[in-house]
Design brief:
This protein has a single domain, classed as Rieske [2Fe-2S] iron-sulphur domain (Rieske Iron-sulfur Protein, 3-layer Sandwich), CATH 2.102.10.10. It has no helices and 11 strands.
């Protein structure tokens, strides 16, 4: 993506994403989860790749689940299990950075012909 295709959006304060925490975020045009791996932030989409349902995080199982059908994903976005005829795609990773005490995700702009 080119810098003009979107913008960096704050999704969490750095202090609110310690090791071992999977933090959900919603910045309007992007929904996802952010966490730390080896001290660095990582972010993935929080939308199921099958039907676009919003995922929820099951902390005891360390898995993301889709409420629309029995599909689960790992914190890295890999499909762990499903009952669909064809496995859904893994969850997309999002560009993430940490800057001045905040964790930011790059959010792409919608194409001009797509409704807001």
């Amino acid at each position: 993506m080119q810098p003009g295709d979107g913008s960096w959006q704050v999704v969490a304060a750095s202090a609110n994403v310690p090791a071992g925490v999977m933090r959900p975020f919603d910045v309007g045009s992007a929904v996802g989860f952010v966490r730390r791996v080896n001290g660095q932030p990582e972010a993935i989409s929080g939308v199921c790749t099958h039907q676009g349902c919003r995922l929820w995080f099951d902390r005891p199982l360390d898995q993301l689940h889709c409420p629309c059908h029995p599909t689960s994903f790992s914190p890295t976005g890999q499909v762990l299990g499903h009952l669909l005829r064809i496995a859904p795609d893994p969850l997309p990773r999002l560009d993430v950075r940490e800057l001045d005490g905040s964790i930011e995700v790059f959010v792409a702009e919608k194409p001009p012909n797509e409704p807001a």
